[in-house]
Fold each of these.
Amino acid sequence: MKSIEDIHKTPMTGTQILAVSICLLINFLDGFDVLAIAFAAPEIAREWSVDAMDLGIIFSAGLAGMVAGALLLSPIADRVGRRPLILTCLCIISAGMLASSLTSGVSELIAARLLTGLGVGGMLSSLTTMVAEYSNDRRRKLAISVLQSGYPVGAIIAGIASAYLIQHFGWRSVFVTGGLLSLLMIPLVIWRLPESLDFLSHRQPPGALRRINEILEKLGHPTLDTLPQPETGSNGASRFQDIFSKEYLGATIAIWLAYVVLLSAFYFVTNWTPKILIDAGLSREVGISGGVLIAAGGVVGGLVLGGLSSRFSVYRIGAVYMFAAIAAMGVFGRLEFELSTMLPVAFLIGFFLAGAIIGLYAIAPDLYPARIRNTGIGWALGIGRLGAVLGPYVAGVLISAGWERHEYYLALGLPIVASLAAVLWLQAYTSARQPGA
């Protein structure tokens, strides 16, 4: 077991960096696939005469699929492995995106977006777990932050590509592009992404020792003569229930609460901002630019958080980000529709809001041991996606009911205070669990 543990203490090898990079690329495509609908939505609404209520349901459909994927598919990775689940989910995503391009009505598009979300939601926790397990202790928080920054990068590319693709080929081409790119990732994963060493050593499927030693040789570490003694309960049927045990129940509830509130606000601003700007009389290009700037802010905010987390507590940095996100959303809700002020504030919303979410991704792997890590993270993301479903839908309801912009931004931004409190509680919880605390 010492050879496996040494991976977390020594500098990262090229094989480790490549594994992290593949996960980053997949997460980048996930961002493209999930948020492509936000940029295609104005054209879909115009072509099909879709009102705000139905558009909110379309936005939420993919996110509802992500909930189902995270809750139902993520735990499977703790039984069959991270890599097989990633491959399965890539197939599901590709099918959902290509099906989206063939739809002819709202119901069909909702079904296709549900399928896409199912694949994305099922895979997110495995990507986070793989990066956490293939990173060394020094670089883990930064690597997870870089991984999650790939999601808003995908949204940025989705916005830039959508502006070109929609103009020249129509909105369906956006989904065709995303589906084909996801298909191309399948042979790359088969070829170069190894299975999780932590999974192989704890679960010990048939051929585990051989597979572990093959990976250790590629990493330049000594091989094992025998498999380590399995952790108590690591092969039992109680894996799911363990995240609700006395030891982990508080952390489970706190991380769920933090995700629900933050993702509700995040998916509201990313899905609705382009349409809000266009409906105010600004051009389609400006509307898309608003969405791109939110995503760009998220990239920068996540990378800054990752860099700072090597020197400061990620919990405290995340709390500061959340407070600033509340302020930025409040300001945006009251601004006049002027590009000189709205677009910079949109960038700041993305910086602090997406950065705070990336902070949660960096925190989550520390809350659970390897035997229930994918289950714990997957359920946190799945429950969090309930907020992601509610955010765009609630916004659609409030807008249809005639609420003013500052009112619905406040209604979806102020609850972030609850996430802030949850993260500060988790800081005290993890500190108390450390040896010698």
Note: Residues 14-48 form the longest helix (35 residues).
Amino acid sequence: MAVIKVTTENFEKEVLNSDVTVLADFNADWCGPCRMLKPIVEEIAEENPNIKVVSINIDDEDELADEYDVASIPCVVVFKNGVEVERSIGFRPKDAIVELLGE
């Protein structure tokens, strides 16, 4: 499954009301570590059809970044049943991010 771009308008539908685990990548275009993480997040999305992977650009969606206390990026947040259950800040290798999913 491809990474879904999430905005304030579709956050509730795609993340909070999702019936599957959601891996949310909070990022920005200017962030070097975010650019390094992007292909890893895309791989995880392709290899794990049982989860939903979303990307949230904090420059475009600063309200979501504020609401979820995202002060440093990249910030990967795992949501289950609309509730945050795990969080990782900074670049992490693929296996560390997959481990957050607990699948």
Note: The beta strands are 4-5, 22-27, 52-57, 75-80, 83-89.
